[in-house]
């Protein structure tokens, strides 16, 4: 375990206050405030261009915010490079397009981050990688290359690779949006298992069935702002914002189950 960072005040893993982000003249995030506590599962949803992926990418500084405060595991994200490296070792992230190394085997994809970043001995890294490939039902593919596998299989490997780093929080940026419909369930199954095991999770997704089943809180964003956040039962049955209701009507009418 890396053991460097600890949740901050009242068990907060992520604390965002007055966060603003611009791309040139485009105001992508407008005064975002959000806290996530240890063990909490938060789903962020909204229309394309609402800022949800930008927000989650700010949490590990793949995108840098220009104003406001952002704390992860009790440490502020700023221009301190060493601090950022420490934080990133405790934050796992799964992307829409997997981001596996195509020239490395599945096993090597899972061991390299451990040996290079955590300085884990090779034997220990292999043992942990195989255990996590077991967890996502991919151990039999350990010696294959990503290009030999389906999209759903690659995403499960990406989750295993992130878990190899022993993260204290997992970020998911639309992990099923690049998958064929029949592959989505196998990835969601792994995410549901993680949630039931108590992993702190922040998920950007349009999978409303997953949100209803797993989330402690659903956050709806539009035009760079948080419009509404509530428990799934309230979010789906009695949204307080007309914009939220419009979004739900549109997404559910197009066959996305809730």
Explain what this protein looks like in three dimensions.
The strands form 2 sheets. The chain has a 6-stranded mixed β-sheet with strand order 6-7-8-3-9-10, sandwiched between helices. A 4-stranded antiparallel β-sheet has the order 2-1-4-5, with helices on one face. It has 258 residues and is an alpha/beta fold. Residues 1-8 and 254-258 have low confidence and may be disordered. The termini are far apart. The protein is 37% helix and 24% strand. A hairpin with a 2-residue loop joins strand 4 and strand 5 (75-76).
Distinctive features:
258 residues, alpha/beta, 6-stranded mixed sheet, 4-stranded antiparallel sheet, 37% helix, 24% strand, globular, disordered N terminus, disordered C terminus
Number of helices: 9
Rounded mean pLDDT is 90
Helical residue percent band: 25-40%
For the CA atoms, what is the radius of gyration? 18 Å
What is the count of β-strands? 10
In short:
The chain is an alpha/beta fold. Helices cover 37% and strands 24% of the residues.
Strand-helix topology:
Blueprint: E1 12-23, E2 26-37, E3 41-45, H1 52-59, E4 67-72, E5 75-76, H2 81-88, E6 91-94, H3 106-117, H4 122-135, H5 151-163, E7 169-173, H6 181-196, E8 200-204, H7 208-214, E9 217-222, E10 225-230, H8 232-237, H9 242-253
Parallel strand pairs: 3-8, 3-9, 6-7, 7-8
Antiparallel strand pairs: 1-2, 1-4, 4-5, 9-10
